[in-house]
Specification:
- The two termini are about 20 Å apart.
- The chain has about 500 residues and is mainly α.
- The protein is globular.
- The chain has one domain: Amino acid/polyamine transporter I.
- The longest helix is centred in the N-terminal third of the chain and has 38 residues.
- About 65% of the residues lie in helices and about 0% in strands.
Length: about 500
């Protein structure tokens, strides 16, 4: 039974107890099959992609050697939101991530808005990353074997091609893997994460073996402003840890494993990012890094004299991007699944395949749509929506922690954000600050997308909502419950 937790109408809030209970429903329950190691690998798999292989050059061009501090600052800004994700993921181990947390705190219409936002964010991310995968595949083929696929089948019409075959291939391959099961997907991702960490470790070892300090002067040519500007760019190399929370429902021990995975993956990636940045500057100047599309390969070639390293780093980039596609697409299927199970989207799509324990039908539909998007649709402009969508989700998750601490103070919280609400408020401030730095046209597109979503909600989601169908209008108004802190619904967890 989908019960409210005190509010009615479009701001009806899902009761946490009912959210957890629904995960065991026949036909709508996902298989609990992953542990802390696989979940942490999912986080690392989602975070380490083209970011470290490319964005380090852009950051060095802005901040000089102080790009090292920019990596640290970007990690700190993400940490506040990661702590909030860890608390909510361990307390509400249900698919849907920010969508589900918002449904339990801010109400149905706000949950729909963030869910609709995440559908675009994850879908465009996967399509854009798949396009990047094709480009990196060609770079690897060229570096290792001296040939590349023709532009006609390797690029989208936007880039002068006809059909991006590599992008379609990787999306459909990942779709098939996700259908087979979360256990198989997690194992493959773990292997890919190990490979890309080994490639980065190879770079770090070679760089430190040829290390010099000459490129570190002046350390911060643009001062504090340069560091903060570079951090705003580098911040997006850390995005992806939130995808771990979409696997809440399939975690064997979510109370313990999810906080470890969310915070642990961020720490691991920060360590590798900082060591990579220090090593790169130890063998190449900021100008050399900025002037290359493959800054790490350029650093090894010009700084250490290892020209053949380009093939190794190109292979690392291909593997890195493949794991990003896998984890981000996995996250989108679970968010979509949660929205369908709640009736805000067609509920029949939330049917779980009994053989594989995955939402196979839904995964196929999303895979085909994303493959078409990656093959044919211009992505250069709409991909900017990924940034604003992620930051918007960060804001709502931090708000969710603050609200649940007040409305459900006795709810079991295996992990608690320390010094709440101070740290969640800082997380909100960081996200809002970065959002204000985004271009005006990105905001316009974002508002248009949300307006389309509101129309769909009114035409379909509102009247088909499972909460509204099953709970009716018997809920106590939110202000009444919020002013009765000692009141408890029958069956609520203490």
């Amino acid at each position: 039974m989908a019960t409210t937790s005190g509010r009615s109408g479009i701001f009806a809030v899902r009761d946490v107890r009912s959210l957890i209970t629904e995960t065991a429903e026949e036909g709508h329950g996902l298989k609990k099959a992953v542990g802390a190691t696989q979940l942490t690998a999912m986080g690392v798999g989602a975070i380490i992609g083209t970011g470290i292989f490319v964005v380090i050059g852009e950051g060095a061009g802005i901040a000089g050697p102080a790009v090292i501090l920019a990596f640290v600052l970007a990690a700190v800004s993400c940490t506040f939101s990661a702590l909030s994700y860890a608390e909510l993921a361990s307390s509400i181990p249900v698919s849907g991530s920010a969508y589900t947390y918002t449904y339990a705190t801010l109400g149905e219409v706000v949950a729909w808005i963030i869910g609709w936002d995440l559908i675009l964010e994850y879908g465009v991310s996967v399509a854009a990353i798949a396009v990047g995968w094709g480009g990196n595949l060609n770079a690897f083929l060229d570096a290792a074997f001296g040939f590349a696929l023709p532009d006609a089948i390797a690029k989208s019409p936007e880039d002068g091609g006809i059909f991006n075959l590599p992008a379609v291939f990787v999306v459909l391959a990942i779709t098939f893997l996700l259908i087979r099961g979360v256990t198989e997907s997690a194992r493959v991702n773990l292997v890919m994460v190990v490979i890309k960490l080994v490639v980065l470790l190879f770079f770090i070892v070679v760089a430190f073996a040829n290390f010099g300090t000459g490129n570190f002067q002046p350390f911060a040519p643009e001062g504090v402003d340069g560091v903060t500007a570079a951090a705003a760019v580098i911040f997006f190399a850390y995005i992806g840890f939130d995808a771990v929370s979409t696997g809440s429902e399939e975690a064997r021990n979510p109370a313990k494993d999810l906080p470890i995975a969310i915070i642990g993956s961020l720490l691991i990636c920060t360590l590798f990012y900082v060591l990579t940045a220090v090593g790169a500057l130890g063998i190449a100047s900021p100008e050399q890094l900025e002037g290359s599309d493959a800054p790490l390969a350029a650093a090894l070639d010009q700084g250490a004299g290892i020209s053949w390293a380009a093939a190794i780093l190109a292979l690392g980039a291909v593997v890195a991007i493949t794991s990003v596609v896998l984890v981000i697409m996995y996250g989108q299927t679970r968010i979509f699944f949660a929205m369908c199970r709640d009736g805000l989207l067609p509920q029949r799509l939330a049917k779980v395949n009994q053989r594989y324990g995955t939402p196979a039908r839904l995964t196929i539909i999303l895979g085909v749509l994303i493959a078409i998007l990656a093959a044919l649709v211009p992505l250069s402009e709409i991909v900017k929506l990924v940034n604003i969508g992620t930051l918007f989700a960060f804001v709502l998750v931090n708000i969710g922690v603050i609200i649940l601490r007040r409305t459900r103070p006795d709810m079991p919280r295996p992990y608690r954000v320390p010094w709440s609400p101070v740290l969640p408020i800082i997380g909100i401030a960081f996200a809002v600050y970065l959002m204000t730095d985004l271009p005006w046209d990105t905001w316009v597109r974002f508002v248009v997308w949300l307006a389309i979503g509101i129309i769909i909600y009114w035409l379909y989601g509102y009247k088909n909502s499972r909460l509204r169908r099953e709970a009716g209008s018997t809920a106590t108004p939110g202000w009444a419950r919020d002013n009765e802190p000692n009141r408890r619904e029958d069956g609520d967890q203490p």
